[in-house]
Amino acid sequence: MDLVESVKMASATLVSNKLRSTLTMLGIVIGNASVIAMVGIGQGAQNLAEEQFESLGPNILFIVPGSQEERNTTFDLPKTLVLADAEAIASQVPAVAEVAPQISMNQVLSYRDRNTSNLVVGTTPEFLSVRSFNVDRGRFVNELDLKRNTRVAILGSEIAEKLFDSSDPLGQRIRIKNVSFEVVGIMESKGSFLGTNQDEFVFVPLTTMSNQLVGRTSPYGVEVSWINVSAKDEDSVGAAQFQIENLLRLRHKITGSDDFGVQTQKDILTIVGTVTSGLTAMLAAIAGISLLVGGIGVMNIMLVSVTERTQEIGLRKAIGAKEKDILLQFLIEAAILSATGGLIGTLLGLGGIGFVGLVSPLKAGISPIAIVVAVTVSGGIGLIFGVFPARRAAKLDPIVALRTA
């Protein structure tokens, strides 16, 4: 019997048992769809994180407190960065363009009968250019505010809408930690950054934040949460990092490990890429288990099929069919089931990726490699798990098979 005839017979057998064939394919369909969708969503998360960091600009550096070990093991970082460090960097590091220290802390905000807890950021005028923020209406923190410890606040677009609805917030007074602040500006919408909604930030002068909201928390001066720095250009980032590290080591009299860290956009992108790639691989591996389950389903149903078709197998062997003909037909049936299930699962996976892209900010990517691998693996699994029932069918003795039937 030639290959074409075997394919026709296998196809006719599967079509005549639609329910059984459909249930057999179901595990392969779910497995393929899961693998492709999970890989696509994982790549979407990685793309989103990379876009958000790239939006900061290639020249930005972040100086964070604490040693590498402390940053990896605790959320309560030591108070090792102060305002004087930021001022020294601005005046003594030639590769730096601007410096914007900040103090960040969640505080209770209230306006009339409305209360909410949001991140309050105490910072300086340079924050706008260093972090690429823009003011929509009103103004931002200025040098006079810093000198006078002025109680002024600039609201993110969403927190302004949450507190004031459709009324104009400019000139109104809100309370932050029971301290009255005048709203002097509204920020342009910025969106989320690594899961944090930047449109719900409230900005105040750094000195006001330190003296009236946080209080002195470091014996060495005004403690800052971290320092935002922009290098003069992209080529100066490495030089800026080197110069900042040397300056802070001298200022902090460090002889052992650093009590601070200087991270560039490229460093953070590398870390984020490693994490998201690991998560994507883990999701794909978990989803791939369903492919294995699907293969077991193929073997199970094929074994049942061999039992049900004992008479057919015995009759075919009695009229001259060889073992390889029987083996080939059952293998082709398993391959058709796996390939069809793989195709349907691929279409469902691609549809799932498109749906996620519509309803979420994730720009889920379609991975040709994941599609090829999933379809190949599902087809291979079908063939591998189809070998045992196919061999069992091929080894049936025709006389025994006809008697059994």
Task: Summarize the structure in words.
This protein has 405 residues and is α+β, with helices and mostly antiparallel strands. The chain has two domains: 3-52 and 272-404, no CATH class; 79-258, no CATH class. Helices cover 58% and strands 18% of the residues. The protein contains 14 helices and twelve strands. The strands form two sheets. The chain has a six-stranded mixed barrel with strand order 2-3-10-5-7-6. Strands 8-9 form a two-stranded antiparallel sheet. Helix 12 runs antiparallel to helix 13. The longest helix has 44 residues, at 265-308. The chain is elongated, with a radius of gyration of 33 Å. 40% of the residues are buried.
> Which H/E pattern describes the elements?
HHEHHEEHEHEHEEEEEHEHEHHHHH
Mean pLDDT reading: 80
Q: Separation of termini?
A: 24 Å
Structural class computed from helices and strand pairing = alpha+beta
Q: What is the molecular shape?
A: elongated
Number of domains: 2
Reading side by side through the largest sheet, how are the strands ordered? 2-3-10-5-7-6
Strand count: 12
Content of β-strand = 15-25%
Number of helices: 14
Percent of residues in helices: 55-70%
Parts with pLDDT < 50 across at least 5 consecutive residues: none
Main sheet properties: 6 strands, mixed, barrel
Radius of gyration: 33 Å
Blueprint (SSEs and pairs):
Layout: H1 3-16, H2 18-54, E1 60-65, H3 68-73, H4 83-92, E2 96-111, E3 114-123, H5 127-131, E4 135-138, H6 143-148, E5 152-155, H7 157-164, E6 173-176, E7 179-187, E8 192-193, E9 196-197, E10 202-205, H8 206-214, E11 226-231, H9 237-251, E12 260-264, H10 265-308, H11 310-318, H12 323-359, H13 368-394, H14 398-404
Helix pairs in contact: 1-12, 2-10, 2-12, 2-13, 4-9, 10-12, 10-13, 11-14, 12-13
Pfam family, one: FtsX
GO molecular function: transmembrane transporter activity
Organism: Lusitaniella coriacea LEGE 07157
